[in-house]
Amino acid sequence: MSEHESIVFVVDDDPSVGRAIKRLIGSVGLHVELFGSAQEFLPSKVKNVPSCLILDIRLPGISGLDFQRQLAESNVQIPIVFITAHGDIPMTVRAMKAGAVEFLTKPFRDQDLLDAVHLALERDRRRRQQEAELAVLRERFESLSPREREVIAMVVSGMLNKQIAAQIGTAENTVKVHRSRAMEKMQANSLADLVKMIERLQVPSAQAS
User: Which of 51, 79, 133, 139 could covalently link to 120 via disulfide, CB atoms 3.0 to 4.6 Å apart?
Assistant: First the structure.
């Protein structure tokens, strides 16, 4: 995905600061959208492309830190770069513990902000890619029959085919067929692949069986 398909949102109540940041971020080919308050920046603004949020700490209405918390509670996963003229250690610690990418105190160097933005966008790209891969895995898992799920749950727990056959009351060859079909549907090239897939899906044993 190109830089042109990424969006940088800026929430700052100082129009001159917002314009300066827009010029800076725009100079490296990124699309920028400005907002004067947290209330103006609605979660619906976040499109399905890599994005990040440059957020001032002190804003009219909701503060930057409170808005960070609200976004997290709403499950809006967008990397945040905080900027402030009035930062202190407790603020910085709170922001970073809550997942902020960077906390920059005004006046900051242009390159520091650009570096933080690129880091935030890369983090969002990775998250989106991982979510897309996980969605594909879930779709494959949902295509398995109940018996196939039961068999692979036992397989990834370390049971042998004959042990599985004895437990579910069927022939060992039947277990092999279920296992083979399940691996084919999951597109697992090996048992190790299958184990990794099930671990990534975090399927509880009760659900897997």
Answer: 79
